[in-house]
Amino acid sequence: MLSDPLFDISSGPLSRREFLGRSLMAGVGAAAAGLTWDALTARESGAAGGNQLPELTKFLSRDQVADILKAALSAGGEFAEVYAEYTINTGIRLDEKKVKSIDYNILSGVGIRVIDGEQVGYAYADSYDMTELREAARVAGAIAKKGAGGSPKPFQVSKAKAPFTLMSPLPVNLAEQAKLELCRRVDGAARGHDAKISQVTVVWGDQAKRFLVANSLGTWAEDEQYLSRLTCQAQALDGANRQSGTGRLGGQVEANFFETNPPEQIGVRAATAAVGKLAAKPARAGKYEVVIGNGWGGVLAHECFGHSLEGDGIRQKTSVRATQLGQQVAATIVDIYDDSTVPNGRGSFKVDDEGTSSQKSHVVDKGILRGYLWDFLNARLTGNNSSGNGRRNSYRDYPIPRMTNTYIAGGSSTPEEIIKSVANGLYCKDLGGGSVDPASGNFSFFVTEGYQLEKGEIVGAVTNTTLTGNATDAMMKIVMVGNDLQIDRVSGNCGKEGQWKPVGVGQPTLKFSEITVGGVA
């Protein structure tokens, strides 16, 4: 399931004093993290740089990690892993021109996993205290009953290269006052766009994360990731008719990102969409030609292909794709990638949460299914290699196979040619979150911004519209692929088994010969 919530933070918000206290309780210490009370106050008054991430090896040495792994294997497990994390989240919400909340949150601790055959043991500690970590290792390793513990191999530092480097990551190099000012600029632009705008909500969210992962096979890898997002929701009112529109900016970006990407544009974008919907009419129900716009429209590929390619469903044969390798699953003009190397992508990284290097996987080649998305466990049990898709929500969760940035590659048609080719159909400029049943491939999406197409022209907005169908059937009906590939780097949050991960989605403008459209007869 993929969503684009207006505001999301990995864990619940904490007050400023709770935030500082949490860093102390986590066994890290405010001084080591650069989070003294004076530093927090300075940051709120406009000074940047007080919220840097600490080096995890200051709290957990290699010798200590090796000791934990040995304890985890003491009952005879085949594989053990340590995952340590330090994450800072910041959130600001501006509503009714007022600051409704400024929230800070730290998530810090260590997760320990032991694998024995198909059995998995997992335990975690919200600290770096070795007594607690040894106990967590013992608990995780209790799944094994062989009684003959092995020894972890010597560590080899990962040679993985980051797909891009941020010289001045925005979350830790832009003060809260500056972030709040960006929110106010968005609010002003949206309200000033049209007198019909009655309400504006602006939300800022960012995350700075550093982790290390080491295992009994000798893997030692570290990575840091920085996410930022500025979102606007504007409501337009005309009598009893109320409509909304959204705009968003961000990604894994530098602190000066908004100097060349004015935040006002998303306020105008949200207000324009909201006002335009006031004149919208219900869409015509039925099966007919549908054009889906580039960028966020890639949610369709995410749902129709991504989840059904994840290794757990393939191994357990609960996915419709489990028996389709080498078969045609989409039109011959369709190529699909899952790619964690996309520059500044929301789902990009140097290594996944198991220490495997980022990769670009060509999963559908000219309509033929060529590969799956593997994590370590499911790859190991099926005789495959991990594709770098082992991901977890935090150290409190075990890794599972997940998508990164999933997109349909660009084609040869211009967006203008695609629009002009439609005699009577629907243009979906923006889609809401969608869902799919991996076992059957059946999907459903809500169209958040759509327009009627008549004689190759966009003629009017539609409202209360859905797209439904079967993934394989729909992908076989793609008849034109645009040359305007865009990968959304801002919004995607993918949910699976209670875990949420940031992902990217993308596609060029696509034309389907028909999709079932929900509307009025």
Summed up, what is this model?
With 521 residues, the protein is α+β, with helices and mostly antiparallel strands. Helices cover 22% and strands 37% of the residues.
- Helix fraction by DSSP (H/I, runs of at least 4): 10-25%
Number of strands: 26
User: Which percent band covers the strand fraction?
Assistant: 35-45%
* Largest sheet data: 7 strands, mixed
Q: Report, as a whole number of angstroms, the end-to-end distance.
A: 29 Å
Mean pLDDT: 90
Tally the helices: 14
Report the top-level CATH class of the largest domain: Alpha Beta
Supply the CATH architecture of the largest domain.
Answer: 2-Layer Sandwich
How would you characterize this protein structure?
The protein is of the alpha+beta class. The protein has 2 domains: 2-276, PmbA/TldD superfamily (PmbA/TldD fold, 2-Layer Sandwich); 281-518, no CATH class. The radius of gyration is 24 Å and the shape is globular. Strands 2, 3, 4, 5, 6, 7 and 8 form a 7-stranded mixed sheet that branches. The chain has helices at 16-25, 30-33, 37-44, 62-72, 130-141, 170-173, 176-193, 257-260, 264-277, 299-306, 311-315, 376-382, 415-420, 471-475, and strands at residues 2-3, 79-95, 98-116, 119-125, 156-157, 197-215, 219-238, 241-251, 281-282, 286-292, 336-339, 360-365, 368-369, 390-391, 400-401, 405-408, 424-436, 442-454, 457-463, 465-470, 478-481, 486-488, 493-496, 499-502, 504-507, 510-518.
